[in-house]
């Protein structure tokens, strides 16, 4: 449950502990020593500021390694009506450190659950938990979300999300049965450039978008083993599975631009993959040619490419690697009937009021910023960047999680997006098993995608 690269350990279920009620102390979220100097409290709208319910929003957090602790800091620092009432992690020291953050910021004492891998279920049963935020290694995300929904709690979970078709359907079915909300914490959709492109798409700048590319190329080989040579969950992911196992950073924004689940859907995919080379070479260089890490047989190739066809005849390409010898790369491309954006080249607009002015080259995206900057970044961009978290995108991801709870509305990235975007994980594997053949992808909306306005009651992001 720890969410920072160590392995889930075996444990046992324990009886639910006595429930406690915590008092909201209203202490400032700006705890000393958090590295948050210069950020004014209450930048993100609280219940009082928005005119909505002023009842405290009570969140339980499962997994408080570096990623989960960052979410705790973000909630406490930027949302004065949110508190953390319970924390679960396999490591008692991590749970204690996260609880100390809450104590300093709110003056309350969150319950901690550290007794085995299923103790998080006791957190989900608490009366003083409204929503469960899950930041664990990938294999736990889907099942924990389902457990939270079954306990009558809203839920949010990290990438890469549910790992199997069964988990995806369970999330959808339990969400619909319970009436609770599910947010997928795909932060790259909140990037300054990608949200600007979202705004331009909404205003028709590119005409009809019909082709998109996205990628996540991030050399994580140093994180495959700890300093002692013990394999981590990232290493296990590369060793035990194959295909596009971490697709959403490249896929999510493309799906928003092409209106996936809002008038179109992901219909089929085909995947190809190189032979694995670089993970073993790195392990041998780090630990020695005859070491245990150097003998690990990895199954994921160094470069994975998936092509996805949509029901409306559009196409998406996503590239994926955690082992390529190259700098961190997350490139995107959007092609429409009136223009194109390529994050590596710029913008070209071919006609109408948005035209770039000729056929002789690209224009920098920056030249369109004054006109098309997304409202989120125009309003709070400086605060988000100053707070940090992948350049500010984590700020907005948690901002929308808090809005989902505060306004009691479906989020921009909901359970149907979570299931559809995660489907490439198991569909890409099946395509590789079939020699790169086409694989049909499930329709988790059960046909509702055909009505482009069926989700119009969601939280607006404009």
Mean pLDDT across every amino acid position? 88
Terminal CA distance reads 34 Å
What gyration radius follows from the Cα positions, in whole Å? 22 Å
Structural class: alpha/beta
Oligomerization category of the chains in this entry: single chain
Q: Note the beta-strand portion.
A: 15-25%
Query: Judging from the principal axes of the Cα atoms, what is the shape?
Result: globular
Give the strand line-up of the largest sheet. 13-12-11-7-10-9-8-14
Determine the CATH superfamily of the domain at 189-374 and 414-443.
Dihydrodipicolinate Reductase, domain 2
Low-confidence stretches: 1-52
Quote the CATH topology of the domain at 189-374 and 414-443: Dihydrodipicolinate Reductase, domain 2
Compact summary:
The protein is an alpha/beta fold and 462 residues long. Helix content is 34%, strand content 16%. It has a domain at 189-374 and 414-443: Dihydrodipicolinate Reductase, domain 2 (2-Layer Sandwich), CATH 3.30.360.10.
Task: Walk me through what this model shows.
The protein has helices spanning 47-50, 66-78, 92-106, 120-124, 138-150, 165-178, 192-202, 233-240, 248-257, 278-287, 292-295, 369-372, 375-387, 393-407, 415-433; strands spanning 57-62, 82-88, 111-113, 131-134, 154-157, 182-184, 209-217, 266-273, 304-310, 315-321, 333-336, 339-342, 346-349, 439-440. With 462 residues, it is an alpha/beta fold. The chain has a domain at 189-374 and 414-443: 2-Layer Sandwich (Dihydrodipicolinate Reductase, domain 2). An eight-stranded mixed β-sheet has the order 13-12-11-7-10-9-8-14, with helices on one face. Strands 3-2-1-4-5-6 form a six-stranded parallel β-sheet, sandwiched between helices. α2 (66-78) packs across α14 (393-407) and α5 (138-150) packs parallel to α6 (165-178). Residues 1-52 have low confidence and may be disordered.
């Amino acid at each position: 449950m720890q969410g920072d690269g160590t392995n889930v350990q075996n444990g046992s279920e324990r009886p639910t502990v006595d429930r406690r009620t915590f008092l909201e102390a209203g202490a400032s979220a700006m705890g000393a020593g958090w590295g948050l100097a210069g950020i004014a409290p209450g930048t993100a709208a609280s219940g009082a500021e928005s005119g909505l319910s002023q009842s405290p929003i009570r969140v339980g957090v499962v997994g408080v390694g570096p990623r989960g602790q960052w979410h705790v800091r973000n909630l406490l620092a930027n949302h004065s009506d949110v508190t953390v009432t319970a924390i679960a992690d396999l490591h008692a020291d991590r749970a204690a450190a996260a609880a100390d953050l809450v104590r300093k910021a709110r003056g309350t004492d969150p319950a901690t659950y550290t007794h085995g891998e299923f103790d998080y279920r006791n957190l989900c049963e608490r009366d003083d938990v409204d929503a469960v935020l899950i930041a664990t290694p990938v294999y736990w995300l889907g099942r924990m979300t389902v457990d939270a929904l079954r306990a009558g709690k809203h839920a949010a979970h990290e990438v890469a999300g549910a790992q199997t078709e069964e988990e995806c359907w369970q999330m959808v079915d339990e969400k619909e049965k319970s009436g609770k909300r599910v947010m997928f914490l795909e932060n790259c959709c909140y990037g300054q450039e990608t949200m600007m492109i979202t705004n331009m798409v909404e205003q028709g700048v590119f005409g009809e978008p019909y082709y998109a590319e996205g990628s996540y190329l991030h050399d994580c080989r140093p994180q495959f083993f700890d300093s002692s040579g013990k394999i981590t969950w990232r290493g296990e992911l590369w060793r035990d599975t194959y295909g596009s196992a971490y697709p959403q950073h490249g896929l999510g924004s493309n799906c928003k631009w092409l209106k996936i689940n809002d008038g179109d859907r992901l219909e089929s995919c085909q995947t190809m993959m190189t032979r694995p080379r670089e993970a073993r070479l790195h392990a041998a260089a780090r630990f020695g040619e005859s070491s245990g890490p150097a003998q690990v047989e990895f199954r994921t190739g160094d470069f994975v490419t998936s092509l996805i066809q949509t029901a409306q005849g559009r196409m998406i390409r996503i590239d994926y690697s955690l082992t390529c010898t190259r700098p961190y790369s997350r490139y995107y491309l959007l092609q429409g009937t009136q223009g194109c954006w390529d994050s590596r080249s710029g913008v070209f607009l071919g006609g109408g009021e948005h035209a770039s002015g000729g056929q002789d080259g690209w224009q920098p995206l920056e030249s369109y910023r004054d006109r098309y900057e997304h409202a989120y970044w125009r309003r709070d961009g400086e605060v988000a960047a100053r707070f940090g978290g992948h350049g500010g995108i984590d700020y907005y991801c948690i901002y929308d999680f808090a809005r989902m709870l505060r306004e009691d509305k479906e989020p921009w990235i909901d359970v149907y997006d979570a299931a559809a975007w995660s489907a490439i994980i198991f569909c890409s594997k099946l395509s590789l098993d079939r020699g790169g053949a086409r694989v049909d992808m499930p329709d988790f909306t059960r046909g509702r995608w055909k009505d482009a306005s069926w989700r119009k009651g969601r939280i607006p992001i404009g």
